[in-house]
């Protein structure tokens, strides 16, 4: 009956491993985001990009307003989408410059709306 004993040990090890795994998964995820806008950040953010995607803009927002707002180093242009009010793309020279602008303006309120800024999908 030696074979059975080994099988039993292997099962015990597997059970121990599984409960260790479950413990690791039950642990609350450690959040690395700084700032209070956590709940608004989409599940899978796009990788850093020199173009920012801005959402939740009030209807009265004009490209001129955004140009003044996003006047960070490396700013190139603002593109608003006629068909979809409330969103805009803001282009910078590179990813570092867009990231600085994003961090500076994340959650900024124009009127009542809190802006949500993510990287545009490449």
UniProtKB/TrEMBL annotation:
Superkingdom: Eukaryota
Q: Which InterPro entries match?
A: Nucleotide-bd_a/b_plait_sf, RBD_domain_sf, RRM_dom
Q: Which PROSITE patterns does this entry report, sorted A to Z?
A: RRM
* Alphabetical list of SUPFAM superfamilies matching this protein: RNA-binding domain, RBD
Domain RRM: start-end pairs? 50-122
**Which keywords does this Swiss-Prot/TrEMBL entry list?**
RNA-binding
**GO MF term list:** RNA binding
- Per the record, a Pfam family? RRM_1
- Protein name listed in UniProt: RRM_1 domain-containing protein
Higher taxonomy? Eukaryota, Viridiplantae, Streptophyta, Embryophyta, Tracheophyta
